[in-house]
Request: fold
Amino acid sequence: MDVYRIAKKAFVNDLSGEGARLYGGRWNKKGTSLLYTAENRSLATVEYLVHIPLSIVPNDIYIASINLPEKIRIHTVEENELPSNWTEYPSPFQLSQIIEKLIEEKNPLAIRVPSVIVRGEWNILVNPTHQDFNQIKITNIRECFFDKRLLRK
Reply:
């Protein structure tokens, strides 16, 4: 299975989850490394753009295709397992607690979580501290172009 991640050129090869560890995110608290990816390119695009003011989207953006071997079990967190306010921004602290507990108890390599931005679509959180993380490979990197209509003010 391929998943997708968009990042500035300087960071597109970095699969360490360091950004998430430093700043935290919807699904992790500061101090926990996670690699945020999406099941398809279009969701990766929307997930990227929602975090950056459209007037300052950098020019050096790339999209990485990352292969998760088929034998890897992906743990799915269903919407009905989440608190009723799971879509709020800023995100409720309970979301990071759910993922922290899951990593502590089951230590999955990959966790499938619902997208807040595009309901019915899924993001894949990859755990870079998992013993089998070395099976995760970047298979393609290409420059990412955004249609100018997306970047209008």
